[in-house]
Amino acid sequence: MSNARPMPQVSTVSRPYWEGCNRGVLMLQRCTSATCGKFVFYPRVCCPHCGHGTLEWVEANARGRIESYTLVHRPQHATFRDEVPILFVAVRLDEGPLMYSRLMKRPDPEVALIGHPVRVVFGDGTPEQKLALVELAP
Predict the structure, then answer these.
(1) Cβ–Cβ < 8 Å for 130, 122
(2) What's the domain range around 91?
(3) pLDDT tens, 89-121?
(4) Assigned domain for 36 exists
(5) For residue 9, is it within any domain?
(6) pTM for the full model?
(7) Can you tell me the distance from the alpha carbon of 70 to that of 107, in angstroms, rounded to the nearest whole number?
(8) Residues 113, 39: Cα–Cα separation, whole Å
(9) Domain count, the chain
(10) Which residues, 6+ apart, have CB-to-CB distance to 12 below 8 Å?
(11) Of the residues 28, 51, 58, 65, which has the maximum number of CB atoms within 10 A of its CB?
(12) pLDDT tens, 4-45?
């Protein structure tokens, strides 16, 4: 197994998202159809809601609420072994899509995570590529 941390494969479709991460901005796609207009995450070539073929990139407010979570004790890559347990969360972004990420700081055990507000922060990747992570919001 490689000693290098696995990183995303940037494609033509996902490039604006990853460039946004490097700028500290959460970029989402939005359907340009007048009858749809829904936000989309993860990056795609067409709207998964209505099938419209044109999506535009817009800056999101980078906030949401935890909808679900799991505590990872056995990572799938050796470079994460020293970081377990890892809190992996499903966040319902304010714009609508569900985004999966890592909760950066474990809260006190008495903090209820489901429904807790979070904000997206950027880092923990490599010098060339930041990742979208989340932290609890007040």
Answers:
(1) yes
(2) 15-136
(3) 999 999 999 999 999 998 888 889 999 999 999
(4) yes
(5) no
(6) 0.91
(7) 14
(8) 24
(9) 1
(10) none
(11) 28
(12) 888 999 999 999 999 999 999 999 999 999 999 999 999 999
